[in-house]
Automatic annotation (TrEMBL):
Belongs to the ABC transporter superfamily. This is ABC-type quaternary amine transporter. Coiled coil: none annotated. One of its GO terms (molecular function) is ABC-type quaternary ammonium compound transporting activity. It comes from Mangrovihabitans endophyticus.
Amino acid sequence: MDATAINDSGAGRDAASISIENVGKVYPDGTVAVGDISFEVPAGELVVLIGPSGSGKSTLLRMLNRLIEPSKGTIRIDGADIAAQDPTELRRQIGYVIQNVGLFPHQTIRTNVGTVPHLLGWKKKRIRDRSDELLELVGLDPTRYGARYPHELSGGQRQRVGVARALAADPVVLLMDEPFSAVDPIVRGRLQEEFLRLQAAVRKTIVLVTHDIDEAVRLGDRIVVLGENGHLLQYAPPPELLSRPATDAVRDFVGADRGIRRLTVTPVRTAMRPIGQDADVDRFPTVDISASLYDALAEMLTADALNVAVTEKGIPVGTVSRSALFEAPKRDTVPTGS
Ligand SMILES: Nc1ncnc2c1ncn2[C@@H]1O[C@H](COP(=O)(O)OP(=O)(O)OP(=O)(O)O)[C@@H](O)[C@H]1O
């Protein structure tokens, strides 16, 4: 199924590029929330904003759909200055997913997903078809869940509905503010993995805020690290960020996280599963059995792959998926695997 197949014009819309040029935000009380920031988000890429609490991540994100107006600078979406656009019109082109989703409690799941198409004046049947298509895409059977209310779903299911709703009108940009942080770590891992598959299918331009460096590395094509007073400390793809942090502050921030450090010291075999379940193993990037989970992750990110094949003396002996990297138990508790 092609999630971009139905929209206003009847054809899938392309993802848009975003250009952020010397953008800053000073709140009326004098707080500098975002310094002087410039970077480009290529169309179809997922960029993660990460940084300590108060470093301006949400402020920056919300300037992209004009929920907050910048104090200076220019933001362009596909070359067009958003300051010149009607904010309501702009927001209908931009999906927005927030922590705890913000579903309407007294509306059914199907109605929630159809919110923006409804505002755009789509016909009833078209809204329903689109809502059901999106629910299926995020892994919720519409016949089972479509008529339920938000409180009748689990936290993880509600989060998926939030993503479906944000995609319903085929936005050119998707903004996500800590979309997976309200669910427990296991559900979060599953949602992240599903989300990567979804993104591979729909290829939206996505800007996602997180506190979690694991999540940033796992999901991001590129990562923006923000520091004090909303300064941009580094903008780089995950392997570069991890291997060549631009400043001590970035090194501390990235290195302070146990998850990434753990990957560098855990052998790849701990997350390996036997070969045979993956028909495409020949096309996976490869790492040697002596490699670490971090090496496996670097290979996946470089090849834009969700799996690696593990080889011993050049022969594939197993595979590791991206989600397994983050679920692998500590090395001490793991059998040798072969
Ligand atoms: N309306 C406001 N008025 C004044 N200061 C504000 C306002 N909103 C946010 N701030 C301040 O701006 C700075 C950046 O806030 P922002 O919410 O963008 O940070 P963040 O990186 O998203 O933080 P967190 O990770 O804690 O959510 C903080 O110092 C915050 O206190």
